[in-house]
Amino acid sequence: SKPGVLLAFHSDNHEVPLEEKHRFPMSKYRLTRLALEGDATVKDLLEIREAPQATEEDLALAHDPGYVRRFFEGQLGPKEMRSIGFPWSEGLVRRARASAGGTLAATRALLEWQLPFTANIAGGTHHAFAGRGEGFCVFNDIAVSARMAMTEEGIEKVLVIDLDVHQGNGTSAIFAQDDRVTTFDVHGDKNYPWKTRSKSTYDVALKDATRDEEYLALLREWLPRLFAEHRPQLVFFQAGVDAMEKDSFGRLSLTRKGLLERNEMVLSKCLQEGVPTVITMGGGYSRPIDKTVEAHADVYRTGA
Q1: Which residues form the Histone deacetylase domain (predicted)?
Q2: What are 223-229's contacts with CB under 8 Å, separation 24+?
């Protein structure tokens, strides 16, 4: 049934047990959902549904079917798994499928009900290439969902706004030869991925310790141009919060308030242009984890 509020997808499958010393903040998905459910101001503006498991057929829209099958069956080699950064398990397969499945479901609902925004409280797994995973990303949820929209929903122009601090190398590689998809990527210049960057349609590389003012001025300049020149019919917003100061992997110096302004700027532009938008989570690695959780929750609050 059509939701009257921000429809967001989430799954307990996002959390896979890791060894204590692992760098990935696995609990952030659940904690972000709890932060939103515990926030009286947004609780009634948000409807959270279970993220379905993406099928092999879904994933083959943007991935090499052989890669998908080998991952499902635990047949990837140690080097391939090292590149992904998680040990293989049945749970990791469920996680990867839910991550892509949530963004797919959000995209389908967005277009079917002509909503302004929908969201995945996960996803934004932009380091996954067609035939391999990298940087904690197995499948590329945005690429799969964009292909679905173009194949099934008659969408002809897609804009990906990727503001995670790391370059979305998988997404830009998958769409390198596809003129229907514009990839706009703002990231830290001296940051991961070091050796496997791809060329986005527009890459804006920032120097270390870039602050709110400079960052927001840059966005203010770029956003109108992207919509005017490319006339997208669908936007994917990869809203990673790892550009925040003191993020373990970030190197930039945005404040929580700066990120809030960033989110408002992007989402209000999409609304103003009347372009339906899917919001995905992306990276966030602040310690203590509550800083990351609050910044992630802010994105969905703005959407609601």
Answers
A1: 26-290
A2: 223/265, 223/266, 223/269, 224/269, 226/159, 226/161, 226/182, 226/184, 226/202, 227/159, 227/269, 227/273, 227/275
Averaged over 145-160, what is the pLDDT? 98
Question: What is the distance, to the nearest Å, from the Cα of residue 63 to the centroid of all Cα atoms in its chain?
Answer: 17
CB 10 within 8 A of CB 48: yes
- Alpha carbon distance 284, 249 (integer Å): 8
DSSP string of the chain? ---SSEEEEE-GGG-----TT-SS-TTHHHHHHHHHHT-HHHHTTEEEEEPPPPPHHHHTTTS-HHHHHHHHTT---HHHHHHHTS---HHHHHHHHHHHHHHHHHHHHHHHTT-SEEEESS---TT--SS--BTTBSS-HHHHHHHHHHHHS----EEEEE-SSS--HHHHHHTTT-TTEEEEEEEETTSS-SS-----SEEEEEPTT-BHHHHHHHHHHHHHHHHHHH--SEEEEE---TTBTTBTTT--BB-HHHHHHHHHHHHHHHHHTT--EEEE-----BSSHHHHHHHHHHHHHHH-
Confidence (pLDDT) at 68: 99
HSE at residue 262, side-chain half, CA atoms within 13 A, is 32
Domain boundaries, the chain: 6-11+25-303
| One-letter amino acid of 58 | D
- Statement: 6-11+25-303 belongs to CATH 3.30.930.10: no
- 125-134, 189-198, 250-259: which range is least confident on average? 189-198
Residue type, 78: P
User: What's the rounded Cα separation, in Å, for the pair 249 and 234?
Assistant: 30
